[in-house]
Amino acid sequence: MTTYFDYAATTPVDERVLETMMPFFTERFGNANSLYGIGRDAFRALEEARESVARSINAERPDEIIFTGGGTESDNAALIGILLRVAPEGGAHLIVSAFEHHAILEPAHWLEKRGFELTVLNPRDDGHIHADDLRAAMKPNTKLVSIMHANNEIGTINPIKELAAVAHEGGALFHTDAAQTLGKIPFDVQDLGIDAASFSSHKIYGPKGFGALYLKKRTPFGAYLMGGGQEFKKRSGTQNTPGAAGFAKALEIMVAEQPAEVARLAGLRDKVIAGVMSALENTQATTLVEPRLPHIASLLINGVEGEAMLLQLDNKGISVSTGSACSSGSLEPSHVLLSIGCPPEIAHGSLRISLGRFTTEEDVDYFLEVFPPIVERLRAMSPVYARMFGSK
Amino acid sequence: MLYSEKVMDHFNNPRNVGVIEDADGVGEVGNPVCGDMMKITIKVDETDHIRDVKFQTLGCGAAIATSSIVTEMAKGLTVQEAVAISKQQVADELGGLPPAKMHCSVLATDGLKVAVDDYLKTHGRAPIAGEIKSSDPNFDPHGDEDHDHDDHEVVAPVLTEPVADPGCCQR
User: Fold this and answer.
1) What is the C-alpha to C-alpha distance for residues A362 and A263, in angstroms, rounded to an integer?
2) Are B89 and B69 in contact (CB under 8 A)?
3) Per-residue confidence (pLDDT) for residue A384, from 0 to 100
4) Cα–Cα dist A55/A47, whole Å
5) From B34, B60, B168, B169, active-site residue
6) Full DSSP string of A237-294
7) Could you report the per-residue pLDDT of A236-248, keeping only the tens digit for each?
8) What is the pLDDT of residue B28?
9) Which of A359, B101, B135, B168 is the most buried (most CB within 10 A)?
10) What is the CATH number of domain A15-253?
11) What is the pLDDT of residue B135?
12) Cα separation of A378 and A313, whole Å?
């Protein structure tokens, strides 16, 4: 029996989504570009999926939805596809936040090396990007701002509508990485006033290797993936019809179940946080400043190292995530935690618990039963716990 | 990243955890950059043989496992033999370590060396362990490995100053 508390990392494919996808692997397998019956059928299915996604996010037109190979591709395409079209010779200014996913930070640095100016904007210690700070960072040659809708590690939600308005005031376009918010909280592209957004299927009980890019009509964009000219010449490649059908269905389910799920998950999340903080001394929530995602509990367990906690919880069948240095390939602690002013020695004890559709109250109770003894045992093994944090 | 069975065994069931109260030598080493800290205490007899070893460690799976195994390896050795234990030997005893975790075995061997030199010093004898790297604030855990530093470029200038006070943490 496993207790999966890492829904922010990935999700299982919902069986309703799987059922929707299956025919496209077998009978309805046609290439959507082919002129004969089975091809036209695939094309129709693709366009139905597109219309469904457009409706789910209140896009004005279906052709504002480009299907891609995932959130990372959408992020790369948004930054590179827009900036190289807007300023082919370089020189334009790009602003991203300091706690973006690497799928935004890496192409941002790549663009900087190729002659674009880059500003990496820090969140404040409350874990949010503030509109005033963005306004102060804007320059006459700022052409694109990319700020994530919500942060995947600490769960804070940024004021996208305000931030987009600031970008537009300054003559720049606005993109947001919505991988952690699509379907989970209300997401209306017209209300938010954004020009582009990235979506990820496997975060919302859809298949991996599939995503989408919302590109508001008339947003300048040069194809990032070139070839046969599919997706309105914006993303070539034989279309992933099962992926599109599955993603559209997954999103429909998320939107339909959203109000109930937001309430249920927030209750479970708060039970986790309160339970840990009352059972253990020297623990903090990374931030409790709203608005935050309903399903992410981000905790700091002082004097214990994250990977050790993760492995001990794994022994008990519980899957969680950590931002400690030892658990990352680079041996540096989470850039997200550092960006909100967390000292490295505190960031080492970070734990992220992210809940989802199949999380039950019993799962939370089980976690609260086994976690405190794990922490106490690891603290007892430490040479410095009593000295650094004092102990009852 | 996969840990060997033996690493997991030493992580789940660490040997010799604790502190020897009347220790003959104490070694405290640590690297705040990577968050690993270790304290080793030893008891040494009149023939320079290590009779008892205990450890305490704050760190990841590899840090705890390497600490545990080094205490097993050190028991019964002379202090001269103990300081000669290499990080490769520690890793081999554990059935191998992922490359990114090899530096944890440096912490374990350094802890033992510092404890031995502490024992020798209190008996008015010269130290034998040589250079201890892992407590140096400039210690680069990647120093011994093939490492592509292009992977870790410095982030572009940030707009606001980093804050020293951990205001992020809600107590």
Assistant:
1) 17
2) no
3) 87
4) 12
5) B34
6) S---HHHHHHHHHHHHHHHHHHHHHHHHHHHHHHHHHHHHHHHSSSEEES--PSSB-T
7) 999 999 999 999 9
8) 94
9) B168
10) 3.40.640.10
11) 58
12) 12
pLDDT in tens, B97-151: 998 888 888 889 999 999 999 999 999 999 988 777 665 555 555 544 433 333 3
- Helix residue spans in chain A (DSSP H): 15-21, 37-57, 71-76, 82-86, 102-113, 131-137, 160-169, 189-192, 230-233, 241-279, 306-315, 335-339, 344-347, 361-380, 385-389
B-contacting residues of A 119-158, CB under 8 Å?
A: 119-122, 124-127, 133, 136-137
Decide if B40 touches A, using CB distance below 8 A. no
Contact of A224 with A81, CB cutoff 8 Å: yes
Point out the residues of chain A with pLDDT beneath 70.
1, 391-392
The count of C-alpha atoms lying within 13 angstroms of the C-alpha of B33, restricted to the half-sphere facing its C-beta, is 16
What's the rounded Cα separation, in Å, for the pair A359 and A125?
Answer: 30
Distance CA(A134)–CA(A123), nearest Å, equals 10
Contact A111, A141 (CB under 8 A): no
pLDDT value for B100: 84
> Alpha-carbon distance A22 to A245, whole Å?
10
Cite the beta strand spans of A93-233 per DSSP E.
Answer: 93-97, 117-121, 142-146, 173-177, 196-200, 211-215
- Reading the block at residue A233, the tokens are 């010449």
Nearest CB to B35; choose among A311, A340, A348: A348
The pLDDT value recorded for residue A330 is 73
Q: Is the pLDDT of residue B162 over 50?
A: no
The residue whose two tokens read 């045992």 is A377
Q: Please tell me the distance from the alpha carbon of residue B11 to that of residue A253, in angstroms, as a whole number.
A: 42
Q: Quick check: helix, strand or coil at residue A144?
A: strand
Q: CB distance B33–A325 less than 8 Å?
A: yes
Count of beta carbons in the 10 Å neighbourhood of residue B47:
7
Query: Is B135 near chain A, with CB under 8 Å?
Result: no
Q: Is the domain defined by A3-7+258-382 classed in CATH 1.25.40.10?
A: no
- Mean residue pLDDT of chain B comes to 81
CATH 3.90.1150.10 residue window(s) in chain A: 3-7+258-382
Residue spans in chain A of domains classed CATH 3.40.640.10: 15-253
